[in-house]
Amino acid sequence: MRAGLVLTALLAASPTSRAAALAGDPQAGHAMAQKWCTNCHIVDSGQKRGTSTGAPTFDAIAQMKTTTEMGLHVFLQTPHDRMPDLHLTRNEIDDVSAYILSLKR
Description:
Blueprint: H1 2-13, H2 15-20, H3 26-36, H4 58-63, H5 69-77, H6 90-102
Helix pairs in contact: 3-6, 5-6
């Protein structure tokens, strides 16, 4: 019984289970990013370039040690000078956040 509790705790702490616990759908987030974000950001490896200079790639955002699901939610809900207010729904924010976090290595 105790070994089962330890195994459960280890699985809960694993990166795979954390990814599964994300609220959004990474595939839906990828599709949305391709539609709305490619004007400024490179959202996947198949895209050659974005039109905005200085906008980080989604991969670069994902690799930042400070990038978390909560941080992405806050960022995507806060207006920024260089980023348009897309009026994303909570589900859309969940999906885009899940996609970005799926790029984390």
